[in-house]
């Protein structure tokens, strides 16, 4: 049985000031198996965030439903961890306290909270920063903390919405390797949203391509590259041909959005 | 000078003191130089002498004490009720919808206009003084706290939800800590307003306090005493302001820029 089932989920936003309603997401269906790493790739505005927020329970679908282990999702919960594109660490808590946030909410004994937090802080390479406040950390370190904070809760699935979008190219590459290494050792089920093709291929076992708004699933491409993957796979022929194929798919979609503005293309 | 570039601590203190020096110098020139008649404005020296006499002969320390007590009493009372109500309004929209229109209306009622009524209801004792301050600052506290809590970053609230927090957890572990520094700042601001209201309350129907002394001195045309009283208020305000700022920085190191 699939772990996460997205069953005909669509979302229409009501019109502003009596205007026409916005169809952000045409009904989308997708099954995510246990231990899968799926990336959702799509042009800007295609409804990737909307879909992920619905899975997280932060937004409600106007049609369809989301099932996690067979139970319908009706609101946010600790079983679905989320890492956002914006930096969402609690600024009044130290790095360690941020990682413990969910554990404390669960009511775990303090000693257990501390040992779990220590484990995840080590995993994301932030030992020595436990007592720092988020604003003292770089963007990459903050996102690593956010990943540790989500994983410390031991969620059934980890949702990530362009978590590395604001980082520079080098940091981004390192973060991808870090997340992939964590996945390879922990086998957490992951749903990762991005509009970066290389990022989508590098980490995923499956890349789901979405069309331009209103979003729907256009292609579902398996990534037959063995694990563990090092950054060097990005230069292999298998990687390049996948990249070429996905670039074509995405370009066609991007053109649909921007095409009208491009003279004579 | 470049915009927004900070100054060193020593320089900041020196500049701050420099203005006081300029101010007193201008005042001295205006009064001691004979540009302004003594009837209207006492010179700094006379003011100091009068101030000394106030403490030595007229028991001014008691007046200062009673005024400080009233300010703190009214302020603490208003904060005790106003902060929780503001938090409830900021966090829960139905509560806000219930209270907000009335509080916004009440906020514009001038506390000083209530003094005659309050004297009628509560006499000219301490209760009346506290009520003037309470009316003056309570509604301001409620609204400012409600706005602060209501404007908590939504992404932090959502992050907390995905970490398993329920409504209780959201209020206690996100809304409250996130709003605390701004609430403390609001209280610091409002304490300043409480001083204005206490003096107004003491100008009418009081037998003690700094405001009462000022009315007495007016009858005697003693501008030295009046100015000394005003400066006293300023000094106490300055000290309490520093104490507040210091405490805020201690309590909320993460909120420093
Ligand atoms: N709260 C909302 N009200 C109205 N329309 C919305 C709302 N949220 C999103 N939309 C619309 O839905 C569409 C999809 O938005 P969404 O944020 O899911 O896109 P996205 O794929 O995540 O884009 P990006 O890559 O830029 O983050 C957009 O056209 C957007 O204008
Ligand atoms: Mg998005």
Q: What proportion strand of chain B?
A: under 5%
Distance between the termini of chain B: 20 Å
* Main sheet: strands, sense, barrel of chain B: none
Elements of chain B, N to C (H/E)? HHHHHHHHHH
The secondary structure category of chain B is mainly alpha
Q: CATH superfamily of chain B, please?
A: MetI-like
Share in helix of chain A: 25-40%
Structure report:
The complex is a heterodimer of chains A (265) and B (257). Chain A is an alpha/beta fold and 265 residues long. Chain A has a domain at 86-154. Chain A has helices at residues 48-56, 95-106, 110-123, 139-152, 169-186, 197-203, 237-258, and strands at residues 4-13, 22-32, 37-41, 63-68, 71-72, 80-83, 157-161, 189-194, 206-210, 217-222. A six-stranded mixed sheet of chain A has the order 6-7-8-3-9-10, with helices on both faces. The model of chain A has no long low-confidence stretch (mean pLDDT 91). Chain B has one domain: MetI-like (MetI-like fold). The two termini of chain B are 20 Å apart. The interface between A and B is medium-sized, with 30 and 21 residues. The complex binds adenosine-5'-triphosphate and magnesium ion. Adenosine-5'-triphosphate binds at residues 13, 22, 24, 42, 44-50, 195, 213 of chain A.
């Amino acid at each position: 049985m699939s772990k996460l089932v997205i069953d005909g989920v669509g979302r229409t936003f009501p019109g502003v000031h009596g205007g026409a309603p916005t169809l952000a997401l045409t009904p989308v269906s997708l099954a995510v198996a246990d231990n899968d790493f799926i990336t959702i790739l799509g042009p800007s505005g295609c409804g990737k965030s909307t879909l992920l927020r619905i899975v997280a329970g932060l937004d409600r679908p106007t049609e369809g439903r989301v099932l996690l282990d067979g139970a319908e999702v009706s609101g946010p919960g600790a079983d679905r961890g989320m890492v956002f594109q914006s930096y969402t660490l609690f600024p009044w808590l130290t790095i360690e306290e941020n990682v413990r946030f969910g554990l404390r909410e669960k009511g775990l004994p303090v000693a257990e909270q501390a040992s779990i937090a220590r484990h995840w802080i080590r995993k994301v390479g932030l030992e020595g920063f436990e007592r720092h406040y988020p604003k003292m950390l770089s963007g990459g370190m903050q996102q690593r903390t956010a990943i540790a904070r989500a994983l410390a809760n031991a969620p059934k699935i980890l949702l990530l919405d362009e978590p590395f979008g604001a980082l520079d190219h080098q940091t981004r590459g390192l973060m991808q390797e870090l997340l992939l290494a964590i996945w390879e050792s922990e086998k957490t089920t992951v749903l990762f949203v991005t509009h970066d093709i290389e990022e989508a291929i590098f980490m995923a076992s499956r890349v789901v391509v979405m069309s331009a708004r209103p979003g729907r699933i256009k292609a579902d491409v398996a990534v037959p590259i063995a694990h563990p993957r090092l950054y060097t796979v990005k230069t292999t022929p298998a990687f390049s041909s996948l990249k070429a194929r996905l670039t074509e798919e995405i370009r066609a979609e991007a053109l649909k959005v921007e095409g009208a503005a491009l003279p004579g293309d | 000078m470049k915009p927004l570039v900070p100054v060193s601590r020593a320089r900041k203190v020196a500049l701050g003191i420099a203005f006081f020096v300029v101010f007193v110098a201008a005042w001295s020139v205006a009064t001691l130089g004979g540009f302004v008649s003594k009837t209207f404005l006492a010179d700094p020296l006379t003011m100091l002498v009068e101030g000394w006499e106030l403490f030595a002969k007229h028991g001014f320390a008691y007046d200062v004490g009673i005024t400080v007590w009233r300010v703190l009493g009214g302020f603490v009372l208003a904060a005790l009720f106003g902060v929780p109500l503001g938090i409830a309004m900021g966090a829960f929209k139905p509560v806000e919808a219930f209270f907000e229109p009335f509080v916004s209306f009440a906020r514009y009622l001038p506390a000083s206009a209530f003094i005659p009524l309050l004297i009628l209801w509560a006499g000219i004792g301490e209760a009346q003084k506290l009520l003037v301050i309470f009316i003056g600052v309570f509604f301001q506290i409620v609204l400012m706290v409600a706005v602060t809590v209501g404007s908590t970053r939504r992404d932090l609230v959502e992050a907390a939800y995905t970490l398993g927090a329920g409504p209780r957890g959201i209020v206690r572990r996100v809304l409250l800590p996130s709003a605390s520094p701004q609430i403390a700042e609001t209280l610091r601001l409002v304490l300043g307003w409480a001083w204005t209201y206490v003096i107004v309350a003491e100008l009418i129907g009081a037998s003690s306090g700094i405001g009462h002394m000022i009315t007495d001195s007016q009858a005697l045309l003693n501008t030295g005493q009046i100015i000394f009283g005003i400066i006293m208020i300023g000094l106490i305000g300055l000290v309490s302001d520093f104490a507040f700022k210091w405490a805020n920085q201690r309590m909320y190191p993460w909120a420093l820029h």
